[in-house]
Protein: Acyl-coenzyme A thioesterase THEM4
Amino acid sequence: MLRSCTAGLRSIWALRGRREGAPRLSMDLQPARRLFSTEKVIHKDWALPNPSWSKDLKLLFDQFMKKCEDGSWERLPSYKRRSTQESEDFKTYFLDPKLVEEAQLFTRGFEDGLGFEYVIFKNNDEKRTVCLFQGGPYLQGVPGLLHGGAMATMIDIALGSCTGGAVMTANLNINFKRPVPLCSVVVINSQLDKLEGRKLFLSCNVRSVDEKTLYSEATGLFIKLDPEKSST
Ligand SMILES: CCCCCCCC(=O)SCCNC(=O)CCNC(=O)[C@H](O)C(C)(C)COP(=O)(O)OP(=O)(O)OC[C@H]1O[C@@H](n2cnc3c(N)ncnc32)[C@H](O)[C@@H]1OP(=O)(O)O
Structure:
């Protein structure tokens, strides 16, 4: 699995015109300014295939895109930055104005293939989502395995995608049942179990593509923000 991951990295480097096979695992440390200078990068939808996606991920993506054709499912776009409206909804205030320009969703902060590669599909009628996730080599915990914190991050995002609107995670409870091999693809099935006032109770499971391995199970409590209260 790691071998195919390394091969993937090499092809990414080759695409960028680097010498193939150069043992360079560090990201280009470009000044943040340059990263944020092009509107194109900011407004790019990152929940679409790129050359780092494995065959498994592309295949599942195509299957779900077919399900979207009759309108029962939709692919959720994903951007590096929150819109101004979202920042308003969350009533968050940046102390440093520079941060307004530079802050970005940290799952989208890695170069293609190195971190979180994922796409989420939503079925509004069934109040559930499916997240297809490939964790790259920079998300390593125990050698060869995905870090539990990276898995927790994706679970949080997957559960959050079932909610809609301005919500925050109040509680996340995860049972890690099997380790996830680095660079493998997992499928996170999430659903809204119960809505009680401002409280949304959600659950999910994380499985292998062939559904034979149950990697994790989790529950989460999300709270709809009270418009009268500030988030900071
Ligand atoms: C696409 C991108 C997706 C990104 C997803 C990422 C999501 C995140 O990571 S969010 C960041 C992590 N979370 C946080 O920082 C949240 C920090 N906590 C808070 O800000 C607040 O506690 C917050 C907003 C959750 C709730 O505060 P507030 O709105 O004042 O609600 P509050 O009145 O305390 O509680 C409302 C209800 O929820 C219950 N509740 C609140 N927290 C909990 C909890 N941890 N466990 C159980 N119940 C809880 C309360 O008991 C109350 O219940 P009831 O209505 O029955 O009396």
Summary: Confidence is low (pLDDT under 50) at residues 11-37. The beta strands are 74-76, 116-123, 128-135, 167-176, 185-196, 199-208, 214-224. The CA atoms of residues 75 and 81 lie 18 Å apart. The chain has one domain: 2-224.
